[in-house]
Amino acid sequence: MAGDLLDGVTSDPVRMGWMQGSPPPADKILLASRADHMRFPMIRWSYSNMRQFVPSRRVAAGDESKALERAIDEGLGQIRFVPLNADEPMSLEQSLTQAFTDGILVLHRGKVVFERWFGVTGPETRHIAFSVTKSFVGTLAEMLVEEGRLDPAALASDYLPELTGSGFGDATVRQVLDMTTALDFSEDYADPNSGIGAYSAALGLTPRPVDYAGPIDLASYLPRIGKAGQHGTGFTYRTPNTEVLAWMIARIERKHFAEVLSERIWRPLGMRGDADLIVDQAGTAFAGGGLNLRLEDLARFGEAMRLGGLGVIPEAVVQRATHGGEPAHFDRNRYPQLPGWSYGSQWWISNNNRGCFSARGIHGQTLWVDPAAEMTVARFASHPTAANGANDPLSLPAWAALAEALSS
Amino acid sequence: MAGDLLDGVTSDPVRMGWMQGSPPPADKILLASRADHMRFPMIRWSYSNMRQFVPSRRVAAGDESKALERAIDEGLGQIRFVPLNADEPMSLEQSLTQAFTDGILVLHRGKVVFERWFGVTGPETRHIAFSVTKSFVGTLAEMLVEEGRLDPAALASDYLPELTGSGFGDATVRQVLDMTTALDFSEDYADPNSGIGAYSAALGLTPRPVDYAGPIDLASYLPRIGKAGQHGTGFTYRTPNTEVLAWMIARIERKHFAEVLSERIWRPLGMRGDADLIVDQAGTAFAGGGLNLRLEDLARFGEAMRLGGLGVIPEAVVQRATHGGEPAHFDRNRYPQLPGWSYGSQWWISNNNRGCFSARGIHGQTLWVDPAAEMTVARFASHPTAANGANDPLSLPAWAALAEALSS
């Protein structure tokens, strides 16, 4: 399928006809066995329906949840900004399809002021959050740190003896939290032979080769990751760090990670709906990117962080999650669009004078909080390019323009 | 694993240690690729966690649901009855583990009077209902009949031209509803070469042989079922009838079966939680047995039927579902424990003077309604034997004793 000829409008999954009809026509059926669910343009359907392709586990919400208040300002769709890679301004509305947006919610002072849905994505859709999941994991880990149950100065292998001798063996919990571990693992989504490929095979997110004899779950795979370099000297984004974090959390809590997430965040924050967490064949959470949730629940998480944790997440945790990481550790060449940023506690931190911080996942999943503007943006997308460098030129100026409009 | 040596107590999934730990020990991991999820004693864990093994789709509940009222009478556990195949009486409490019960709720006049949970099953568990699913499908089909949108006298192939030339081609909708179709399909769960084996392979509920080249979804498989005999002369329980019904429903409603079930039953009846519906690779519902739901939501469905449909299900539909089928069509030799019964509209009907009717699924899934006693029993189980003949000797007298106790 000539996916590279399709733009945000022509790749609309309803227009493409994916999985429509009873049954869908043969050429419109997306098969996990062909990895259709992970290839553009099919991802425009699959990212809103991941549990139809892979095993999952419920992250239970409580029985009580209040709907978000609405104070819609349709004029916001017409605010204009200049993309980072362009000379001509465009409107927010125009930018949405260009960013392959599936859904967006903008909250100002806790009320939804702007809301758009595209394709097969709606308010009740559980859309995959990819690495936005990591910020939930990091927050939970920091909560255990705050309670004295997880020592950031201890070694990861103190909690997980299985990791002794692996690349994680002599890394501290803090290094895992801030992704300053030095691992023999490449996270290049465009390279099929990268570490992320072996990781994905172990996870089972995509079909394995017929003659595959490697690990079939994360706990078997993670100890095989070696070391390359010296821990603690720089931030390098590697998803296995998050899997190790979630593994520690489950080990400490003696519960499945999905239960911890439900009890410590989903229920107390009054999330509107259960989430779907992708699991590997051993039932272990795909904590590095497997959370599928309602967009408004992602916005709720952002609001909780913006408002100091709402008594659910300790303020010290919020402080570390939104002001952590070491800018000197950040790779300026790799992230030219994020100058002065840092990565800490599994959050992306702007260190700008507005206090902006973000949770980011491939293909455009975004939680963006601008405390100065009392604004939270939650966005799901299915951009053909995994790396967020592809949509940042549109998105970052859009959030800035929104913040300015809401602050005036 | 010597499953045949295990009883209801020793097969307890917590005691067995399935899937406990982060990660579980290698010999405690249940793998879909080995069909662990469909074999005793592993089913005592898997039937409460099916979405971790197979693709599924959400059946959405609405935002508002009231908890069932409780009026617990612990004395009910001590009521005694004589099993059909025994001389000595036993207590209800004793019978529960003997029937490999995972959960049971007894409602009297709409309030929960008795409640027990075992193993890994609890109030929030979505346990597989197996063929109890069929009674939801039959009820939805009768609702369309009542609205004049599905003609019981028409041919199935009038709605689904794909079935022309198949065993279903010249069967009427009513014959499909009441399972009086004459198909070349054996539903012997103990025979790996039966029709149910090919059906299961198409469905993908169990792993397919490596060299499998058969259909990979229900819509490709169902037209391949041939005819054997004459339609309308007798009731023979065959699950593909239900798949055809659900297919017709989806075709008429132009929606996924999960959406129809949500809109027409789950939301209006105020179900407490979303359900998980197993789907095949084309995303089509496994409507013959793939519903996973909270036990209290199953009880709610029974209560709705007992109370004339509660304005959600038309009374005429309730009447047909609870008084339908032709006793003369019922196979007395096959169901010696169900004398005088009939099967109609995908419900099991006792035709006794109490008006009892039931939804039944393999391995002990049961919804039992005794209108005379104003009683509804909902039970999940993971009995080692699929056929309900294995637990009826315990269950039928238990329900009768409960009804008597609640009526006195």
TrEMBL record, chains A, B:
One of the Pfam families matching this protein, by short name: Beta-lactamase
Any one Gene Ontology molecular-function term assigned to this protein's record: 6-aminohexanoate-dimer hydrolase activity
SUPFAM superfamilies: beta-lactamase/transpeptidase-like (SSF56601)
E.C. number: 3.5.1.46
Gene3D superfamilies documented for this protein: DD-peptidase/beta-lactamase superfamily (3.40.710.10)
Family annotation (InterPro entries): Beta-lactam-related, Beta-lactam/transpept-like, Diverse_Enzym_Activities
Keyword Aminoacyl-tRNA synthetase included in the entry's annotation: no
All residue ranges annotated as the Beta-lactamase-related domain in the record: 103-385
Keyword tags: Hydrolase
Segments passing through the bilayer: none
Alphabetical list of PANTHER family matching this protein: BETA-LACTAMASE-RELATED (PTHR43283), BETA-LACTAMASE-RELATED DOMAIN-CONTAINING PROTEIN (PTHR43283:SF7)
Protein name: 6-aminohexanoate-dimer hydrolase
Organism: Novosphingobium subterraneum
